[in-house]
Specification:
By secondary structure, this protein is of the alpha/beta class. It is built from 16 helices and eleven strands.
Length: about 525
């Protein structure tokens, strides 16, 4: 597309007669013709049906029928979300083809009812977890700023597609950062809504008590428009007047600025905070409570709930799963039932502490990651599994998933080599209006979100040398082997070594979940639901 449309800008153009839905859709399809082969955005395209939907939208708008802010807007849908136009694969050889066949997920049905033009199913990581795998027969999602780099996961194709102009907004899902991480690496905006705000019916689960469906788009205002259409719990958009007077913005620095982070990050973040202050907000330094404990809770919960869903297929079809996906799911076999329950108790205590923090500030800001998009070779360890001790330790999305709070990721400048950087804006439970209002005010003043991908000046490449084998502790390896055998998971020796190293690395933080005095007598809850003030008022 020759113009970096926003979804809301295109909606205005449709209504003032300076654009048509057919024109927008044809431009999006032409952009896909050019970009999809390079970037692996789509798993399936619905060109013919999309053009038919665009024609209907133009006819309806011409007759004065206005279905809302997405009427006539091209939108992509992550392939973990069912759409009647084509199969849902979860980017996996394992999923039963009958799953979701011929039906729309609730969120997709709402998009269609709102007049949106569904252009196709976008690529993802397998079942919403793991890493890309070139050995499997699926498109390989790449970063629009530099195709040799990762787009982030797991909503890779949705983020890449928005950045490349192949649709104006899209749906993703977020269990440990799968909306916000690709939004950060691709230079777009992405919202993880309050848990329970958006229905998940018709969406493949990864972690039942963590998963959230939400929008990716060029701007915060675009994300707001999508949320207003797909939300279960009614959502009232903010004023979008750019005025932050009287708002208290919590500023988080601890844990987010490692020595090996990108050198451009500190100045980019300080500048972003200064912009918010210039709009009338008052910055307040804050510390996030239970940092390591919540990250451990996310790990315990996601792997346990993930293995529960895949427990029947994983032993029988081990080799059909992507290497990194099966490695992550297999970690669920290394977690005890008591540890899972304790993680839920910690989540309750941490939610109460974070709720109290939002009594002192209106929103909280922090970097989404301390690096830009990485080369593919930096993603996995020697076993081919996700390298949680390396790259993924520099991504700061997982803290928020065990909580119920909404979090928005917005572009915040560029790395020293020209790759997008990103800022998270978190709000209180049901506080999307505050989060999106701050995001919109920031984007009115900065414009980072309107930048279109150009080749980044990066020489970042994995050197191609094999990763050294993990250092083995015979006692740990024996324990891991016993647990895998009990779960009937046929990992080979290389994978057992990788799982053993991950098990040893996570033991201290998982064991530490039992050392929190406040959680000793807490009742376990999957997540904390509170009445929506917009409903109860």
């Amino acid at each position: 597309m020759t113009q970096a449309w926003t979804a809301t800008g295109a909606a205005r153009a449709l209504r003032d007669g300076t654009a048509t839905s057919v024109g927008l859709t044809k431009a999006a399809l032409a952009a896909a013709d050019e970009a999809d082969r390079r970037l692996g955005i789509y798993l399936a395209r619905f060109d013919e049906r999309a053009l038919e939907a665009a024609e209907r939208a133009d006819e309806e708008l011409a007759r004065g029928i206005d279905r809302g802010p997405l009427h006539g807007i091209p939108i992509g849908v992550k392939d973990t979300i069912a759409a009647a136009d084509g199969p849902t694969t979860g980017q996996s050889l394992v999923l039963d083809p009958a799953w979701g066949a011929g039906r729309d997920a609730t969120v997709v049905a709402r998009l269609r009812a709102g007049g949106a033009v569904v252009t196709g199913k976008t690529t993802a990581m397998e079942f919403g977890c793991g890493l890309p795998d070139a050995a499997k027969p699926f498109p390989f999602p790449r970063n629009p700023w530099q195709p040799e780099l990762w787009a982030g996961g797991s909503s890779s194709g949705t983020a890449s597609g928005v950045a490349a102009g192949t649709f104006l907004a899209g749906l993703g899902s977020d269990t440990g950062g799968s909306i916000r991480m690709p939004a950060a690496f691709c230079g777009v905006s992405g919202l993880m809504p309050t848990f329970g705000r958006v229905p998940e019916a018709g969406c493949l689960p990864l972690g039942y008590s963590l998963d959230r469906v939400g929008p990716l788009a060029r701007s915060a205002r675009d994300c707001s428009a999508v949320l207003s259409v797909i939300a279960d719990v009614p959502y009232t958009e903010p004023r979008f007047d750019g005025d932050l007077s009287g708002m208290r913005v919590g500023v988080v620095r601890e844990h987010h600025f490692p020595e090996d982070g990108d050198p451009a990050l500190p100045e980019a973040f300080d500048t972003a905070v200064s912009v918010l202050a210039g709009l009338g907000a008052t910055p307040v330094d804050v510390t996030l409570p239970y940092w390591w404990e919540l990250i451990a809770s996310m790990f315990v919960t996601a792997t346990s709930e993930g293995l529960a869903f895949h427990g029947a297929d994983l032993p029988r079809r081990w080799d059909d799963y992507f290497t990194a996906s099966r490695g992550l799911l297999a970690m669920g076999a290394l977690v005890s039932g008591a540890e899972y329950v304790q993680a839920q108790r910690v989540r309750r205590v941490a939610q109460e502490a974070v709720d109290a923090l939002f009594g002192e500030v209106d929103v909280i800001v922090c970097p989404t990651a301390s690096v830009g998009a990485p080369p593919f070779g930096d993603l996995a360890n020697a076993a081919g599994h996700q390298d949680n001790a390396g790259l993924f330790a520099k991504i700061y999305t997982p803290y928020w998933n065990p909580l119920a709070n909404p979090v928005l990721a917005v572009p915040m400048g560029f790395t020293a080599s020209g790759l997008p950087l990103s800022m998270q804006i978190a709000g209180p439970v049901w506080g999307e209006a505050a989060v999106l209002g701050v995001g919109d005010a920031y984007q009115r003043r900065t414009g980072w979100h309107s930048r279109v991908p150009v080749p980044a000046r990066t020489d970042a490449r994995h050197d191609g040398r094999p990763r050294p084998p993990e250092r083995e502790d015979p006692a740990v390896t024996a324990r891991v082997r016993t647990l895998l055998d009990a779960a009937r998971l046929p990992a080979d020796e290389r994978e057992i070594a990788g799982l053993s190293a991950s098990y040893a690395a996570t033991r201290p933080v998982v064991d530490g979940l039992f050392d929190i005095p406040a959680a000793r007598h807490a009742r376990p809850v999957l997540t904390r639901h509170v009445p929506d003030p917009e409903v109860s008022a």
